[in-house]
Amino acid sequence: MKPVEKWMLGALNKNGNTVLSYARVRLFGIQAIIDEFANYGYNVRIREEQPDLITDITGNPITNKKERKCYIVEVIRNGSK
Fold first, then answer.
1. Which residues of the chain, if any, have pLDDT below 70?
2. Residues 6+ apart with CB under 8 A from 79
3. Helix, strand, coil share (%) of the chain residues, nearest 5
4. Is-above-0.85 flag for pTM?
5. Are 69 and 49 in contact (CB under 8 A)?
6. Is residue 6 classed as helix, strand or coil in its secondary structure?
């Protein structure tokens, strides 16, 4: 597992956001992941969500009983906070 995978970059390009698992954040840390996205030229923020609030592209919930949280990576656009 790497801090940032190619599919995450594709999701950012297509949708402006992507999802991170609790395990990935626990392994690398939020700041290391933000720094890795910056290495690819993305200015991002990461917000925490409960897994039952996250859905895939078809609207089905993404849940994993072992994971306590999910994290959403969003591209920060000019003028956004």
1. 50-57, 61-68, 78-81
2. none
3. 35, 25, 40
4. no
5. yes
6. helix
Terminal C-alpha separation, the chain: 30
- Residue 46 contacts by C-beta under 8 Å, 6 or more apart in sequence? 20, 25, 30, 33, 34, 71, 72, 73, 74
**Residue linked to tokens 């996250």:** 54
Output the six-digit token pair for 33. Answer: 């992941």
Can you tell me which residue has the tokens 């591209």? Answer: 75
- Map residue 12 onto helix, strand or coil: helix
> Which residue stretches of 1-81 are H helix?
6-15, 22-28, 30-39
